[in-house]
Amino acid sequence: PIPRTGVGTGVIVTPDGHILTNNHVVDGSQSVTVTLSNEESFPAIIIGQDPSTDLAIIRIPATNLKPATLRHAYKTQVGEDVIAIGHALGLRGGPTVSKGVISALNRSIDIDSQTTIVGLLQTDTSINHGNSGGPLIGLNGKVLGINTRKEFESADGRPVEGLGFAVAQRTIEPILDSLKSVSYTHLRAHET
Q1: Annotated active-site residue in 54, 87, 103, 183
Q2: How far apart, in Å, are the Cα atoms of 93 and each of 11, 20, 35, 78, 182?
């Protein structure tokens, strides 16, 4: 069989190489390569995965990285201007940026018959394949959420446009702490 490849986006969360992305971006991957904005590439290891929030932490062997700043979710408001950053459709030439608004708070979507992601931000910002795992940021540059899904069909099967979702910051922080704590044990086991 021909190996499958895909493109996603991530957010640097620690200076020593932890990157937050979507679980569906890395799930089942045999290898993950991260290319930074300066075009430097690194092999990554998957540190932790949480399918219930569609979040994952990967780590690259890099230091002195500049982590993103998360903004407290209680300040997020419907109608607020936001920007989605990512590698839409895997197009060459760097990341893409699209602008929209927060359409709703605390949305839930069913991923499959056993998984529902709750507490999502809904946005009309254009989110396409390749944007997954990238930041949804406020105009102050702080991360409000991690882009996770674009719903293409309504419940009755009709196409829907202008409807995307991001995992909210209030969901990210406890998962991030949990996945990072797993990482140190995982790395010690592999670096001895």
Answers
A1: 54
A2: 18, 22, 12, 32, 35
User: In terms of C-beta density within 10 A (0-12 exposed, 13-18 middle, 19 or more buried), how is residue 5 classed?
Assistant: exposed
Placement of tokens 């201007």 in the chain: 81
What is the per-residue pLDDT across 136-178, written as a single tens digit (0 to 9) for each?
Answer: 999 988 999 999 876 655 667 666 667 889 999 888 888 777 7
Which of 98, 103, 132, 183 is the catalytic position?
132
Neighbours of 35 (CB within 10 A): 12
Distances 4 to 28, 43, 101, 128 between C-alpha atoms, Å = 11, 17, 34, 18
Instruction: Identify whether 132 is a catalytic site residue.
Output: yes
